[in-house]
């Protein structure tokens, strides 16, 4: 959240093959001990990239003390829970993708929130009608069982080298001593001010003295510092089996709303049994071959790995490196449109739904869908889904369903260590500010992740795999990705926040980097398009106001303006044990990319 005013980055090529490094733009001047924020850095000993300078510094601190990529990822995530409290925190969930350099293998954790065991398909139906989205969000109904604490503990136990209490120390310090408020933190608080005032504990924490936080002031969260200290001493059992968990249950089931606000904060139905039964799932990643590389990501319950993977397979037989910008974007948009059509029909929580993951990722299925794309014409959305179980050339298998809404906040971090391990980790409390409900005395917001379910069937004519259910995980678009070469050595790792735009952001960064050969920081900075099987494709201003838009419209595309899409970070492996860390140059005020040792060997 601690983001300086947006600025442009001038880049200077230092290796013709792979990198560009910010040179002309000086680093942002830190205040109150805040580390400088730069969007790209190259060096040794490991790397961390996130949206926030303090969080990146927390990860670097752990790496410098001998911790590995998993330790540093948890430390960075915990710090983001302090400085990005409207995007992430222990009241939410996420997906963790890990590369082990010793075994040259990729592993993942599904730390998605779950619906209460009492939840039925009518969770968001009232008097026979679906609740208005705004009514559902700021309520106990929207809160799923948090998965982030279990994700941290699972990752550390399986692959870490430090204890939870150790890696939480930097975040605990930031929460206790404070961080400097910037324009973005203030503006995000302002956009949530009305609903924050519904809940006195939220207003007390984020509207100090009843006012918006002042840019340049120091924001402290001593309650969260104490919560982290308790987690460090007791472990995450304090949440899933202890007093902290009881506080969460009480808050969800009896939202502490201000009676004078008039807000109907509908109670949830979370129980001690929901917390005690929660497990972060260790599961196999998705794997997609692309240009001789291996692309790994998260499997369902997230749709990220299957949808990015299918789109890459659709693009496999098109030489994007030689295409004009118009033809590149045309094929990128159409591949996204088709992949989203199939996502909406087939992807849900595999514990409840028969998700044809392998079929969605098969080249045979992708080829059967790719033939729909023409160089001189545009598909009409919504495109009907295909059937990955029985691929038919240019065939469609059923009725199209619209893409359901997902909040566009969330945060992503990418980490590498000196041993070559890599983590790509996206975590969230769903939309900006989550449910707006703070657990009294604990210093963190609760998620509104259950609103990622379909409130009612997206299309009554077809089975919707994303309806609520007891203990079910709502479908996500989170797409943390690690790309390996043919020797199973990392090439690049990327990810992004942005709700359903996460998928198109990751797909675009990958193709800009792998196909268009942009340096990673430039691939992240490139203006974005996002098509999600809708009538119009969203464009950022640099594309919307360019002549490229007119040329695409001449083919048949229709567009709408989106001021900002995603906020990616990534790390790239360079020869000789060197790493490049990259983050946004402008979006969300720019990101923070650092390496342990930026000096020459």
Provide an overview of this structure.
- With 601 residues, the chain is of the alpha+beta class.
- It has a single domain (11-282, 405-568), classed as Gamma-glutamyltranspeptidase, small (S) subunit (Glutamine Phosphoribosylpyrophosphate, subunit 1, domain 1, 4-Layer Sandwich).
- Helix content is 31%, strand content 18%.
- The chain contains 21 helices and 22 strands.
- A hairpin with a 3-residue loop joins strand 1 (11-15) and strand 2.
- Helix 14 crosses helix 18 and helix 15 (325-346) crosses helix 21 (547-555).
List the topology elements.
Elements (H helix, E strand, L loop, with lengths): L10 E5 L3 E4 L17 E11 L2 H12 L4 H15 L9 E8 L4 E7 L13 E2 L2 E2 L2 H5 L10 H12 L4 H4 L1 H9 L1 E2 L2 H9 L1 H4 L3 H7 L11 E2 L2 H13 L2 H4 L2 H11 L18 H5 L4 E3 L2 E5 L2 E5 L6 H12 L9 H22 L10 H4 L2 H8 L40 E7 L4 E7 L52 E4 L5 E6 L5 H14 L5 H6 L3 E2 L6 E3 L1 H4 L2 H9 L3 E3 L7 E6 L3 E6 L8 E6 L4
Helix pairs in contact: 1-2, 2-6, 6-10, 14-15, 14-17, 14-18, 15-21
């Amino acid at each position: 959240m601690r983001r300086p005013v947006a600025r442009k980055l001038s880049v200077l090529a230092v290796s013709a093959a792979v990198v560009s490094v910010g040179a002309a733009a000086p680093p942002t001047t830190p205040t109150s001990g805040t580390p400088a924020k730069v969007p790209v850095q190259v060096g040794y000993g490991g790397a961390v990239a996130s949206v926030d300078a303090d969080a990146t510094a927390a990860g670097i601190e752990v790496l410098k003390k001998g911790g590995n990529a998993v330790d540093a990822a948890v430390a960075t995530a915990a710090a983001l829970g302090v400085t990005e409290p409207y995007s992430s925190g222990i009241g939410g969930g996420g997906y963790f993708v890990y590369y082990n350099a010793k075994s040259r293998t990729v592993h993942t954790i599904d730390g998605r929130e779950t619906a209460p065991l009492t939840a039925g398909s009518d969770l968001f139906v009232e008097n026979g009608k679906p609740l208005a989205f705004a009514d559902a969000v700021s309520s106990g109904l929207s809160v799923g069982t948090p998965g982030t604490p279990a994700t941290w503990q699972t990752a550390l136990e399986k692959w870490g080298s430090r204890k939870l209490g150790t890696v939480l120390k930097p975040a605990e310090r930031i929460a206790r001593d404070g961080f400097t408020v910037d324009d973005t933190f203030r503006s995000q608080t302002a956009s949530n001010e009305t609903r924050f005032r519904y809940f006195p504990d939220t207003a007390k924490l984020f509207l100090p003295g009843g006012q918006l936080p002042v840019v340049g002031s120091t924001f402290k969260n001593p309650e969260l510092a104490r919560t982290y200290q308790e987690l460090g001493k007791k472990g995450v059992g304090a949440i899933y089996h202890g007093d902290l968990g009881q506080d969460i249950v009480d808050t969800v089931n009896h939202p502490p709303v201000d009676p004078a606000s008039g807000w109907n904060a509908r109670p949830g139905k979370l129980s001690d049994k929901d917390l005690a039964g929660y497990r972060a799932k260790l599961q196999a990643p998705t794997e997609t071959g692309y240009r001789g590389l291996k692309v790994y990501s998260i499997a369902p319950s997230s749709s990220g790995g299957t949808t990015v993977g299918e789109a890459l397979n659709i693009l496999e037989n098109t030489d994007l490196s030689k295409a004009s910008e118009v033809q590149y974007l045309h094929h990128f948009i159409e591949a996204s449109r088709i992949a989203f059509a199939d996502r909406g029909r087939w992807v849900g929580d595999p514990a409840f739904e028969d998700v044809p993951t392998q079929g969605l990722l098969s080249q045979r299925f992708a080829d059967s869908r790719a033939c729909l794309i023409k160089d001189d014409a545009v598909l009409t959305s919504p495109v009907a889904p295909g059937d990955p179980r029985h691929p038919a050339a240019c065939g469609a298998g059923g009725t199209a369903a619209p893409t359901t809404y997902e909040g566009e906040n969330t945060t992503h971090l990418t980490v590498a260590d000196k041993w070559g391990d890599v983590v790509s980790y996206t975590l969230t409390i769903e939309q900006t500010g989550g449910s707006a409900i703070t657990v009294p005395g604990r210093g963190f917001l609760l998620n509104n992740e259950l609103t990622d379910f379909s409130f009612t069937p997206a299309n009554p004519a077809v089975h919707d795999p994303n309806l609520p259910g007891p203990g079910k995980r709502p479908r996500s678009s989170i797409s943390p990705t690690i790309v390996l070469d043919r020797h199973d050595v990392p090439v690049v790792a990327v990810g992004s926040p942005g709700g359903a735009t996460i998928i198109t952001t990751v797909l675009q960064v990958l193709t800009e980097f792998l196909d268009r050969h942009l340096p990673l920081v430039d691939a992240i900075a490139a203006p974005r398009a996002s098509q999600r099987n809708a009538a119009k494709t969203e464009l950022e201003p640099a594309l919307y106001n360019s002549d490229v838009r007119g040329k695409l419209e001449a083919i048949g595309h229709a567009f709408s303006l989106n001021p900002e899409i995603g906020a990616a970070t990534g790390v790239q492996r360079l020869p000789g044990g060197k790493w490049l860390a990259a983050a946004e140059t402008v979006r969300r005020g720019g990101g923070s990319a650092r390496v342990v040792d930026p000096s020459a060997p």
